[in-house]
Design goal:
The protein is 33% helix and 18% strand. The C terminus is likely disordered. It has two domains: 219 residues, Rossmann fold (3-Layer(aba) Sandwich); 171 residues, Nucleotidyltransferase, domain 5 (2-Layer Sandwich), CATH 3.30.420. By secondary structure, it is α/β, with parallel strands linked by helices. The chain is elongated and about 80 Å long. The strands form three sheets. The protein has an eight-stranded mixed beta sheet with strand order 3-4-5-2-6-7-1-8, with helices on both faces.
Length: 427
């Protein structure tokens, strides 16, 4: 590519560099303009994932009549940001903003005092703030770009006013670029049958970001609630009736566990081992001398044979030099212990049987978290998702909470039914 650019004259080089479809990732490109399958194009992405560039390029394309983006140029556009300052500094003047993505001959004129962009072909864009949604009363538009909608000051009112203003042309459309947060408006847009959704992560744009950012920031936050939201572009939310809330888990998360006096591997194996079986929940947890517990690893396996889950349990038992294996045997009777004895005859095993429902068993364990007695070592996203989706009627999906079951048995053994004398050990 560099060799090609070297042999082009300045005009062709500029044309080539500004041809966005050549350089964009597929998640940064909308469907062809003749497609009538969408009204809202929602780009959910992490910090630095390339959302702003995609928003600028789409806005440029529809304003200039680029046939890759539109069948005709639109005349009136709305640019809506959290504040007027954000609209100017990010959407217009930013390094990936509108002024930066045009060829010189097509570049619009920015009149800061009027918050207005004017293209040579007569197209006009106005900047609006979510702090002043009523400013959208009166104007009308063919298209809109909404940036960082999830952090708007008055999202629903601003969105509603914008929808009434999108009344020009044959098919008004809007692009929404945002790092997600679990707000009602964003979830409603996601559920709209006229919404096209693109998802992108920070890591996808690594070539355009500082390597130190990945070493210093991404490595620290990867897998945490904040990291999944700000880097992976996921919508992370809690159920109001869930036993666990994410802020409690985050508050006590740590990167390294102290010296532990006991370690257990807890498992909740399925009765059968075929493609439709429940997963085999497998969680490793330890207890320190201060009677606090640390969740070390979640190695839950989906739809596996008894041979495979028993080998995983043995691997973890040896890896952590655990004191015992805690295994639920309600449905399988002695089968689960027999499977484990087959791979390791002298394995110390404690069978547990559930005499109460899952909620009643889990509730005292959730209280341990509330009291600050349990820490997750690093991020355990799939386990934490299950914990924060577990309500009185179980998981919202209706499936079995296998990871959670293993967690409950491990912490019950370590903190609610401790029956072994502690012995110091390094982790």
């Amino acid at each position: 590519m560099e060799d090609l650019l070297r042999i082009l004259n300045d005009e062709l080089k500029e044309h080539f560099i500004c041809r966005w479809p050549i350089w964009a990732r597929h998640t940064q490109l909308p469907p062809l303009p003749q497609s009538d399958q969408w009204t809202n194009w929602l780009l959910l992405g992490g910090r630095g994932a390339g959302k702003t560039r995609a928003g600028s390029e789409w806005t440029r394309g529809v304003a200039t009549g680029d046939p890759y983006f539109t069948s005709r140029a639109v005349g009136r556009l709305a640019l809506v940001a959290e504040t007027y300052s954000d609209g100017r500094e990010v959407m217009v003047e930013g390094t990936s903003g509108l002024l930066a993505v045009h060829k010189r001959a097509e570049r619009p004129i920015w009149t800061s005092s009027r918050r207005r962009l004017e293209w040579p072909n007569g197209a006009v864009a106005q900047v609006f703030s979510s702090a002043d949604p009523d400013a959208l009363r009166g104007p009308q538009f063919d298209a809109a770009w909404c940036d960082e909608l999830a952090k708007w000051n008055d999202p629903q009112h601003t969105w509603d006013m914008l929808q009434f203003a999108l009344r020009l042309g044959d098919a008004p459309r809007q692009i929404i670029t945002t790092t997600p947060r679990p707000i009602g408006l964003l979830k409603a847009i996601l559920d709209d049958q006229n919404t096209l959704v693109s998802r992108m992560t920070t890591a996808e744009n690594r070539a355009n970001l500082a390597s130190a950012f990945f070493e210093r920031v991404v490595a620290v936050y990867r897998g945490t609630r904040l990291g999944r939201q700000e880097l992976e572009g996921e919508i992370i939310e809690d159920r109001d009736d869930a036993l666990w809330q994410r802020d409690v888990i985050e508050r006590h998360r740590c990167s390294i566990a102290p010296a532990l006096t006991r370690i257990v591997v807890a498992g909740d194996p399925p009765v059968t081992g075929h493609s439709t079986s429940d997963a085999c929940g497998i969680v490793v947890a330890g207890r320190c001398a201060a009677s606090r517990s640390y969740i070390l690893e979640d190695r839950t396996l989906a739809a596996v044979s008894p041979a495979r889950w028993s080998q995983m349990v043995l691997l973890l038992y040896k890896k952590y030099q655990a004191d015992r294996v805690v295994i639920e045997t309600n449905e399988g009777g002695d089968m689960a212990e027999s499977v484990l004895r087959h791979v390791c005859p002298n394995l110390p095993i404690r069978q547990v049987k559930a005499s109460r429902g899952k909620w009643l068993r889990a509730e005292p364990v959730a209280h341990l978290y509330e009291r600050g007695l349990v820490s997750h070592v690093g991020a355990l996203p799939e386990l934490e998702d299950e914990m924060c989706d577990f309500g009185l009627e179980g998981l919202s999906s209706g499936r079995s909470p296998d990871r959670l079951d293993a967690l409950v048995w491990a912490l019950t053994d370590l903190l609610l039914n401790p029956d072994l004398q502690p012995r110091a050990r390094p982790l």
